[in-house]
Amino acid sequence: MKSISSVIKYKVSVFSRRAALTCIAAALLLGGCKKFVEVEDPPHQLTGDKVFTSDNSATSAMLSIYIDMMNDQFGNSGSFAVFSMSSLAGMSANEMTWTQNNTTAPIFQEFSDHNLTPENSYVQPFWRDGYKYIFRTNEILNGLATATGMTDAVKIQLQGEAKFMRAFCYFYLVNLFGDVPLIMQTDYNQNMLLPRTAAAKVWEQIITDLKEAKAMLKETYPTAERLRPNAYTAGALLARAYLYTGKWEDAEREADAIIASGKYGTGLPALNQVFKMNSPEAIWQLQPVRANSNTTEGAQFMVVGTTRPNYELTQQMLQAFEANDQRKLEWIGFSDPVNNPTWAFPAKYKAGAGSVTEYYVVFRLTEQYLIRSEARAQLGAAKLPLAKNDLDIVRARAGLLPTAAADQTSLLQAIAQERRVEFFAEWGHRWLDLKRTNMAETVLKPLSPAGTWKKGDDLYPVPGLEIRANPKLDQNEAYR
User: Fold this and answer.
1) I want to staple 234 with a disulfide (CB 3.0 to 4.6 A). Which of 168, 213, 419, 480 is the partner?
2) Is residue 275 within 8 Å of residue 366, measured between CB atoms?
3) Which class for 384: exposed (0-12), middle (13-18), buried (19 or more C-beta within 10 A)?
């Protein structure tokens, strides 16, 4: 298992052992596999001169990150964000538990019990792979800065995508670990012994990268499908970053721009369309890259027959839904409802093996309504009716009546509840929401085994491998 030091020293090959996989996906994104691989004397490093001498070869360097994000989720020790945020952070948030008594059970149980150790092998990939992608985006930005033979339009597009991806990775790193090293260049000797940077500084860089990315990216997508970021993708994460940092007016403005654009429809689509390939409300999706496979959620969460789910929703999660909430009917499955009515599993994604019918949804329009709603509620009495209206749009799609909440406190509680049932088992939203609102201990400590919750457990431990590789790293409070 690599530490961050070995990852940032490693020069990532564009034409790695995943070249065939990359070729398949790039054929769809670039319009043909032949063009993708036609680079004379393929370079061994992203910084190789020839990578940035043509639009196609430079684009392939960026596409390889999206492809690896989808491919890495099949690893034996988890992945960065894709699937792991839904499953592992879902366990941390008491959304689901692991039911099988096997060799991975103790490791998964640490997430559910809030009893993580720095040696947990499923924490390591969050850190390792996050920095792997950051290093690659830094190399892409370095290469583009001195690139020759590329068109200006493609160069600007790729710079925007790289800045967006760097911000995306840091968003999850700072939320999971708190203070993290802020690596902005590729010099190994400088990077290998960097200390942790204050979270506030990391947030500043996330917002700076996203503002620059949004200015560089076009409102149109560079592909026929929504498989590469556009300006609204950067805006979607920027709206979230503003919300998380308490910049209510900025969060409202960014979310409003996406909703008002009309690019994602004038309302919310039916629940059974949300997680489909080319979902009408998707702002950014990742395409499955393995033959005859859809998403890992579809493969791992769904249950065929009457066997017990590996990932089982908790009773607290099931009881969180109001009566007649159609999300419980559409997005939750029961493998044996007659004999074992508690055997419930997430069913947002329903396709596993077979022809591709579902893409992985990273950002979607509903979140922007709820971001705008929360930001407006935080801004005070004058905007409470608008905040309520946004919330009711989401509730109406779920078949629910308008909220009865009227004052600021009750409306903010209603929005938090709506986020819980809308985003369960999806990108760790609940875990991050409890953390950012300082509610993690209040909500989760009573649900943890006696004595396991410690002050600071709303952060994951810095992996022990990283601590040992870099003496300038210190450990989070709960794990010292």
Assistant:
1) 213
2) no
3) middle
